[in-house]
């Protein structure tokens, strides 16, 4: 069984930077990582790419040949990738034996809540290669400073979760820069927990652009709350503790932490005994320690209760 992440999010949310930083972190804790670039417009990659969709199709060529704009071109590229899924499968086949996969997808949000091509690509890979993937949906944290944009981010996250039907983690990225956009109207917990959106109504009324849509916004907030699916975790990709906490959450969502509990303990020990002159070396491994302490004795093997999550 192969584990990995499907990295998605709007343009500018930091997907490529995330893949670069996450691959470095996972390599440091002993996982062999393969980054798969599935963005045909991403021609400046900061990471070493194991598979690059540009070897199959390029957005620039599609736009020139078919007289399409960037959005139409990306839809065409994803449709072409789906029809040539055997190419991608053959590229991934040598990697699945011992690699953790990071899929770097395009930033066109319509691909993940409206069009079905990207979803079909993911589902075919899951079925053919027995993958266990978590969708990591990045949203720029600065959207929290604008109530209207924050509600839009919530709707986008909810629509993507319902459409993709994958284990899903929503992430407020670039959290270290959030104060540069001004003081938040509420504590950060309000934006991450998504508990009572009625508090936003007053602040939305203060913006003349949003006031005339007050009723619509109220109804949309109720839809989000009624589903009860959306919440966020935060990420500063340069902070070891922040990245480590996110990795634990992803590992739990796709089952990695339970399928490879002994291997995980070894990974974390590498961080514990390693040099500390680089920001990613310390890794919070309290979750694994807690599981081991609860379910293991000196003379017994790990025996996890089926009802335990």
From TrEMBL:
UniProt keywords, alphabetically: GTP-binding, Hydrolase, Nucleotide-binding
UniProt xrefs under Pfam families: ATP_bind_1
GO molecular function: GTP binding; hydrolase activity
Gene3D superfamilies named in the record: P-loop containing nucleotide triphosphate hydrolases (3.40.50.300)
Family: Belongs to the GPN-loop GTPase family.
Function of the protein: Small GTPase required for proper localization of RNA polymerase II and III (RNAPII and RNAPIII). May act at an RNAP assembly step prior to nuclear import.
Summary of subunit composition and partner proteins: Binds to RNA polymerase II (RNAPII).
Name the record gives this protein: GPN-loop GTPase 2
High-level lineage: Eukaryota, Viridiplantae, Streptophyta, Embryophyta, Tracheophyta
